[in-house]
Specification:
Chain lengths: ~150, ~80, ~150, ~80
């Protein structure tokens, strides 16, 4: 458990090409048989007459990275996973862009299915990340996770 | 004792600031919170957790750290 | 249910860049909030002293596409999904390369988690696809799903 | 009646061919299968399903189609 704490935050959206790069990096790991990827995308929700055009994320970075590290290490202990990669946006992410990326790999498919939803839910529940939903009329509201 | 306070998300609006340093003594996190609620009455309309030196603490815990963060409801993902 | 039956088969491996392209195509669909992607990757299993270097896939194409269509339509009825994309390789896929891609999207995360594993399992169980595992000494064996 | 038979995967090795056309009459899928087992004794060592005109059928079903596929265990993914 002395692994270095990773920084999960990336400035702005997570791009499809960076996701492709991450997948590609696993093609040399020839004991992997199954990958499972969750992507959170900013929805253009309509509230009343206003439409969300972006979310601006802020976070208590140190606590978020520390808790994510704990979630990661616990998942490696519990599930037979080869790799795990977690990224979350900080700053502005427009509707349609990706803000959250969780990528698990294993030799077989059961561990990736068993673990991914739990990791995603824990990250959403436990990490001090705050979303400010920006409307098309430049007003905003604070995002609430359900 | 100097305490660096940081306010996150909507709490920056409730307090009108993102951070400040205060020089006061409190025995518990709860006592600090009582003081903040008096200083910023709008905090009463908010749910938040308090972290001390990067660890989220309960109100009964002793105040021993010098970095305190007020964290509104989490909405990552 | 009169939708056109899609061809799920692609010749050779599924490339990371084609996956990125598929993700990118969803960025205009601004009601999507969650994507879940399963990727099957050819494992370099070692059996005795031999190592698998590739799988050569063949299939009864018409039946596979028809059954996949049924699986897809049933999933759309059962789960609140916005999009679903399914691809499987035909022909030779080297160890480390991707042979199977299932991509589901929804406005929220529950439907994608609920549906993806079931869709993946149904495809593996029901579609007449046959994998010939090629060893490094040019011998082979027929893949068995467990 | 002409029946086009296709053999998939390891069944191509058991029969020594990938497809053939036979002109015979069978009432059921099972009767056709009995004939094939006699023609290709190695089939006995294999599990397979039989599809008629692109639909997987049970052995009791009448043989009415002219395209028959012998499908060994599925191993996609």
């Amino acid at each position: 458990m002395n692994k270095k704490i990773k920084n999960i935050f990336v400035e702005g959206p997570i791009t499809p090409s960076s996701i492709a790069k991450s997948i590609e990096n696993h093609q040399t790991k020839s004991m992997i048989g199954a990958h499972n990827i969750f992507l959170g995308q900013v929805r253009a929700d309509i509230i009343g007459k206003k439409k969300i055009i972006a979310i601006e994320y802020s976070a208590q970075i140190e606590i978020s990275n520390q808790l994510c590290h704990e979630i990661r290490e616990a998942a490696f202990l519990k599930y037979d996973l080869t790799c795990m990669h977690i990224y979350h946006s900080i700053g502005k992410v427009k509707a349609g862009e990706i803000c959250f990326f969780v990528f698990v790999s294993s030799s077989h498919r059961s561990p990736v299915f068993q673990s991914l939803e739990k990791i995603v839910n824990e990250i959403k529940d436990r990490l001090p990340i705050f979303g400010k939903e920006i409307f098309d009329d430049k007003t905003y509201q604070w995002k609430v996770n359900n | 004792m100097e305490i660096k306070l940081r306010y996150y998300g909507q709490l920056q609006e409730a307090t009108g600031k993102s951070e400040e340093i205060i020089s006061k003594h409190f025995s518990t996190i709860g006592q600090l919170n009582d003081y903040l609620m008096k200083s910023y009455p709008k905090l009463e309309n908010h749910n938040y957790k308090i972290a001390q030196n990067n660890i989220i603490e309960s109100y009964n815990n002793p105040l021993i750290g010098n970095r305190i963060d007020l964290l509104p409801p989490f909405s990552g993902g």
